Amino acid sequence: GGEASTAARTLEETSPGLVVGTLAYMSPEQLQGRSVDQRSDVFSFGVMLYEMVAGERPFAGATGAQLAASVLRDDPKPLPADARVPPPLGATIARCLARPPADRFASAVELAAALAAIPHPRGTAAPTEVQPTPPPAGARRTLLILDFANVAGDPTAAWLSTAIAETVMVELKKLGAVGVAGQERLSPEAAARDLARVTEAELVRLAGTAGVDLLLAGSFQKVGEAIRLTASVLEVPAGATAATIKLDGSMDGLFALQDRLVAELVRALGLDVSDSSLQRVADVAAPKLEAYELYAKGRQLHNQLGRGGMDQARAHYEQAIAIDPGYALAYSGLGGLSMMRYIATTNRSDLDVGTVYLQRAAELDVRLADPHLWLTYGLARLGRFAEAHREGERAIALEPDNPMSHYFAGVAWWLEGMAEFAPGCWREASRHLRGSAEIAPRYQAAWQILGDVLLRAGDHAGARAALERACEIERSGRFTHARFVGAFSLLGRLLQRTEGSGSALAAYDTSLGVLRGVDHVYTAASVALARLGGGEAHIRAGRPDAAMASYRQAQDTCRQAERSLGIGWLAVRASLGIAAACRLLAMPREEDAAAAAAAKLLEERAGYDFSGVIDGGTAVVWHDWARYHALAGRKAQAVEALQRAVAAGWSDAAWLLADEHLEALRGDPGFDAATAAAREASGC
Predict the structure, then answer these.
(1) What is the mean pLDDT of the chain?
(2) Torsion of the alpha carbons at 597, 598, 604 and 609, rounded to the nearest 10
(3) What pTM, to 2 d.p., does this model score?
(4) Rounded to whole angstroms, how far apart are CA atoms 378 and 604?
């Protein structure tokens, strides 16, 4: 109606008395609330151009008021001498930043002509128009979508930043013509920056480190009930702008406006999408606007991964569903939160509740991938592996470029390998985990679980490559997606088999140092693994006293975190380690008590969580039993334990043949059969 169109005109030409824009880039007339035209945009561009060549902004102020005063009163700071800015470029920047609008370039066209006329230093090529490099035939590109900048800074509209980006992502994913990624693909340092204030060149650099081909950087301005969406698509390898889109609408037509934005993006990028496909996406019933706002606020909190924020996110999702019971994304958000809560609490009820929410989301919107990838994880944790694998394949089919689809599919096979091992588990797990790591090279969890799988399968070289990559990510802190820990603890386990106790102990010490003070759901398990590994290394080096101390520290860690995911397996191993140390220290009463405690805990599984975990599970524990019996001279029991380990998935035949603790078993028919079965089961 007339009110909306009037507000739209307000966005087109800011009226006196209204300040809209990012403060650092506002022109003097915009700060004063006067009418603006193209020359105001020239001033804003001049600020960015100055920042690009100087590495700082032309005006300074500790507060917003001081910055505004500097823009209105001061001349721009002189360009630094070490920037070596050619005089014609310096003059162009100065003209852009002239305080009176009449002294600036009259338009962007005039400014572009001035920039094109600047001679380049001798020996360099003249500038040419950069053309985006087309992808190879049949290649699928990936578009990184950033949260939309809130240009006016209206806190009541802040939820739109995530809402618009999320909607565009969901709709483009359903169309399937381009890979889509969100801000989780950025490193924590990049994601923590105010991306609305980052230069275009820096945005391109950040997108390049995220391993994507295209970048969508957008903003919105909301004035009253009117809203303008602006979006720029950048070709990352070329650093060129592929498309710029500007759309106006009203809040009551927000969903139609977002559909228009998706359609414009499809056309601008030349995606192979039919009009009928676009229409099918647009025809999906939109949620009620109030529910949409609640969902978006919940998603913002959800993405921050803070404990308090998770509870608030849950409340927002539940309120959204109360308003709109058919809101698939809200059900999916609740299901994902329940699965993440299970990782922290190991309460089975979280898995059961989360599964119900996710199945409801999948029923409401059959083209959403998120419910299926989280169902893959939840069903695998529930031991429903056939269903989990079907959900994993469905998630990959819906979003082949989503590293989490491949990751959870791999995790499901990894968990089955620990719980109900069958030949092929390690092969399928490694295939999917490699796919996840290929898409998201700085996602530590994919490399680390892959390292565990390959170590179990006896592929020492492959495990080392994967774990060294995981360690580099953990040490640097430059990860994408969720943070992970414990890579050095698992690397120590590998080094014990390939280089000996000295290298292993160095890795365990590094792990304990890296983990010190880290608050993470897997910190306790990772510390316990480092202590367990240290105990084994000391035993192999002939230091049973040091081994005893290390095993007792592992036991204490397990007792303090008894509900931590999979900690029960590590508690059994700690008791077995203590029994082995007691054997070497000639402490028979203590040895018997520790061995009995390990056997009872393994049988009853009371008081601790026994879910699948890195370097845990039945096969690893039975291998420890085999080593303990071999140290005690009980050859028949050692062989029996080893056979049970192989039946449960132990597939590192090379280590069985090299381990000095098992030397007395070699030549036994049972040992030879177990070794042959382990070799056959590896499958990677």
Answers:
(1) 88
(2) 120
(3) 0.77
(4) 24
